[in-house]
Structure formats: C-alpha cells, structure tokens
Design brief:
By secondary structure, the protein is of the alpha/beta class. It is built from 16 helices and eleven strands. The longest helix is centred in the last third of the chain and has 20 residues.
Length: 332
C-alpha cells in the first residue's frame, strides 16, 4: 500500500525539477552535488548485498552517492542511526518498530533477507532438548528482534516468556555469557555463533523453527527520503543489481561477503543456507499487504509483543514505517 503523502512528495520533487531545468539545473544534479549518503551496516550475511553493491560498483552504476560504514554490533548500528549519525542503516524489521516508537522517523525501503536458520539459540551442554528451556536463563538483547525470536520459539513449545528468565545480553556477547555461566542459552548469529560452538555450546533451535520471525531491512531517515528521493531510488536500483549479481555469481559473491564477515570463504555455503537473500521481485511480493508473506504481518507480531512488555504505550503506525513506493517504482 503506497503512502500517498510520500507520492505527493515525489511528484512535487519532479515538478520542481521541471522548473529548475529552465534555470539551468535539476533536482537530480543538485542531489548529486550533496554529500554521499552514509549507510551503516554490521556483520550479518544478508547485509552482504550492501557490501557487494559497494565493492562491485553498483552504487556508482545506479547513480547512488553512497559511503558504507561498518559497525561491530547491531546495537552500535541502531544507536548511530537513532542519533542521526547515519542516513540509512541495515537493521531487523522489529528494531525499526522500536526506533519509530522512540520517536525516530524512518522509512523501511528494502528487505535484504529473511533468516531461515542463520539465527540460532545456542545452549550449554546441560540442555539436551528444547523443552529443557523452561525455568532457564536465556540471553537476548531486550526489546530487540532477539526478544521476538525467543517469544516465537517458546510459543511453538507451548511456553511463553514467563516460563524463562530473560537476561539482557547482546548477540556478540552470548559466547562469553555462556562460558561464564551467566546464561544457560542465548540468541546469536554468525560469526558470533561460531565462537559459542567452539567453546562447547550447541545449537538448540534456529530461525528455521520460527519462519519469518526475523526479517532484515534497510531503513532510511525520513528526512532523507523527503529531501533526496532520487538518491534513495538509486540505492534501491543498486541493491536490485547487487542481489541479482550475487544470485548469478555465488562463489565470487560469497567471497566478498566472507571478507565482510571475517569468516573463511569455505564456510559460506553453510552460512548462506540459513537465509534467503531477497530480490526485487521478493521485495514487491512481501510489500503487498494482502500477501501471505506480507512484511506487515511480521511487523505486527513485534508490535503486539512489545506492547505486552510495556516497551511503549502507543503502537507506531506501520504505514509510517514501511514505505514500499521505491520498490514499486523500481524497474519502471
């Protein structure tokens, strides 16, 4: 569903461009003169599509002035975006809900991937089966997508968050928390899950056990979308080119992403088996609010959970978070 006020902004920008042409300039030319858009990313294989777009020159090819900035953790990326030190950032869909509820105006304009096994719940050797989680200490980043992931997993086991003790631990800190007996199990993902396994932990459950619980996206500051729509559209074009190239050149693409993740290239087939990188066609499908795979359904689950945890009083409007207009306009 298109947000009509966004459409009006795009039309207004186009009309302004016609007026400026008579004065010797265009909106496009003015925007290219502005500083590059800074996109923040952290170590997650699905975000490799941004790295590929950068390394392979697809941003330049699409006319998107972009600088990619790497962060060591999800929390650092989210914090930098919330503090407006980034023009855009990769994040999990449910984290965009938390940001919006906290008063950060943003637009989700592209889905990079869906986790289908890459996110894991790792556990100490004493936990032999999922049912053993009852009464245990489970580490997740409180109020984040990890919290949503855990809730979905427990629901499938006929349990709830009330049946466990939730400990606030970031994904990159899970291996150490397990080793130091701070938690009994915890949510993490590559490359941090590799460290946990090397320390003796085991994978108990994965995101394949909670389909569509974790959707990864690219979000822009609302002001950037309003003031530089042509550049945002160019970013979508570049990501379309990058995802298509990666699908057709998996070995070369995986090598780029392996370097991005700081993992051995020969581990990439296993890493990539746990997620589905989204194409433009996939983006258009889930942007359809009527689709069974709609991104809106996943987002609503996160809203309902966060409300039950009293993380915010008033639920944010999904129509002010998810902006499918750039995907809908792509390829036209």
């Amino acid at each position: 569903m298109m947000r009509y006020w966004k459409l009006i902004a795009l039309v207004a920008a186009a009309c302004a461009g016609l007026l400026l042409t008579a004065c010797g300039g265009t909106v496009e030319a003015q925007q290219q003169d502005e500083k590059p858009l800074t996109i923040g990313v952290n170590a997650w294989p699905g975000y490799g599509v941004v790295e590929i777009a950068s390394k392979m020159g697809f941003f330049e090819q699409a006319g998107a002035p972009v600088t990619v900035k790497f962060f060591d953790s999800v929390n650092e990326t989210n914090r930098s975006f919330a503090e407006k030190r980034l023009d855009a950032a990769t994040m999990v869909l449910t984290d965009t809900i938390s940001q919006s509820a906290a008063g950060v105006p943003l637009d989700v304009i592209w889905t990079t991937d869906i986790s289908a096994g890459a996110d894991v719940l790792v556990a100490s050797p004493s936990i032999t089966k999922p049912e053993d989680l009852r009464g245990k200490r489970i580490g997740v980043s409180y109020g984040s997508f990890g919290h949503v992931f855990l809730s979905r997993l427990l629901s499938n086991l006929n349990m709830s968050l009330d049946d466990v003790t939730v400990v606030n631990v970031a994904p990159e800190e899970i291996p150490a928390a397990l080793s130091n007996n701070i938690i009994d199990a915890g949510h993490t993902f590559p490359p941090f899950s590799d460290s946990a396994l090397q320390n003796g932990a085991k994978v108990l459950l994965t995101s394949a056990d909670a389909p569509s619980a974790i959707i990864d996206v690219l979000a822009f500051q609302d002001a950037i979308v309003e003031n530089r729509p042509n550049d945002v559209q160019a970013v979508v074009k570049a990501l379309d080119l990058a995802s298509a190239w990666w699908a057709a050149n998996q070995t070369e693409g995986n090598a780029i992403v392996a370097e991005f993740l700081s993992v051995a290239p020969d581990t990439m087939p296993d890493v990539m088996s746990g997620l589905q990188v989204y194409s433009l066609a996939d983006n258009k499908l889930i942007a359809n609010i009527q689709s069974d795979q709609s991104i809106y359904r996943n987002a609503q689950y996160g809203i309902d959970l966060f409300k039950s945890l009293s993380l915010f009083k008033e639920a944010p409007d999904l129509q002010h978070i998810i902006n499918p207009s750039f995907v809908e306009n792509a390829g036209q």
